UniProtKB/TrEMBL annotation:
One of the Pfam families matching this protein, by short name: PhoU_div
Span of the signal peptide: none
Classification of source organism: Archaea, Methanobacteriati, Methanobacteriota, Stenosarchaea group, Methanomicrobia
InterPro entries named among the record's database cross-references: PhoU-like_sf, Put_Phosphate_transp_reg, UPF0111_domain
UniProt cross-references to PANTHER family, sorted A to Z: UPF0111 PROTEIN YKAA
Family classification: Belongs to the UPF0111 family.
Recorded superkingdom: Archaea
Protein name per UniProt: DUF47 family protein
Amino acid sequence: MGLKSWVVPQDKFFFELFEEQAEIVCEAADLLVNIFADYTNIQEKYRQMKDLEHRGDAMAHRAYDELNRTFITPIEPEEISRLVTALDDVIDYIDSGTNMLLIYEIEKPDSFMVEFASVIRQAAEEIRTGVAGLRTLNDPETIKGCCIEINRLENQGDDILSNALRSLFKTKDPVEIIKFKDIYEHFEIATDKCEDVADVFAAILIRHT
């Protein structure tokens, strides 16, 4: 039986939780953009990022606990688990990439970091739109559009990484290479995790529409 045929009251919990997670993804992406736009008070801004990461973890734990207690779910339990995990992973990699700025004592971000932040923010907005559409699946074309755009943005993230590494390896400082490469790769993985969310969207569409 399709999702649209039998949404019952207790099912609202999972959709509300997905939406809360997606909102945290957007807040984390917004904060990342703001960090690079005004690169001051990084310690305090990272504390805000860590608070978002903790909120994301709490949402994920609530979802897993409820999943273990719920016999009937609005979509397949494995789909719920995959989506919760994918959303949490996006938050985790935005957080860990930001943490690298402190660990490596980066004095000034470069243009590639700014580009990564912009791509992640755009993907986060697509995630929020896609998640909102899961409640009823009345507009699968919108969700498909989100998947296509997230995939495009992930490819853009790959291009940014390639360009960033090409530029980085022209430098002569091996310590700088290690630092910046690690940061770039964390943010590129964040775009990969956004694509994981899109993959779950696509799987849900195939099964339920």
